[in-house]
Design a protein that fits this description.
The chain has about 200 residues and is mainly alpha-helical. The protein has two domains: about 1-55, Arc Repressor Mutant, subunit A; about 60-200, Tetracycline Repressor, domain 2 (Orthogonal Bundle). It has helices at about 5-30, 40-45, 50-55, 60-85, 90-105, 105-115, 120-150, 155-170, 170-175, 185-200. About 30% of the residues are buried.
Amino acid sequence: MIVSTPATSRRAGGDSAQRLMDAAVDAFAYKGFHATSTRDIAARAHLSPAGVYVHFASKQDLLFQLCLRGHVLALEVVDTARQSAKTPPAQLVAIVSAFARWHAEQFRTARIVQYEFPQLTPEHREEVLTLRRQIDAVVTEVLRAGVANGDFDIADVSMTTLALQSLSIDVARWYKPGTRRTPEAIGTAYGDLALRLVRA
């Protein structure tokens, strides 16, 4: 006989998993992956250490789920930004602005996604790298379109993609809430810088 799980139980389980992910974001961003224990994460989530393993196979699995979710969100950000504009210059400004802003607004998650990535297993790294390639491809396609119609003057599209992505990603390293540079201002400034970089 199949017994359905009550909606309240499903919500409770989901809430616990989300609390653990939120706690892991705080812990990993503050202490780093290796210095964080499952006990640290459970304490921040107000759960028992054993509660971590109800939802995640290991601390490594928890990191992977965070990296996966972060990259999926980042891909959604750049895809949505591209679709919001019609021409390659406007698309590039929209993408870089949105990507830089996201790295400021979600700086804790972004730090984990970018700087704890090497701690993943080879299999997990490859899965995340697939998403990274998709994110880069969005920028590369816009750059190629801009070169083709004469909007951009770029000698090396791949290197320019790398430079633009690195510019936005680095925001997560130095950004802190309360600074005079808001995420919105950072996005606007980086979008302008991106356009300057690709035009003669």
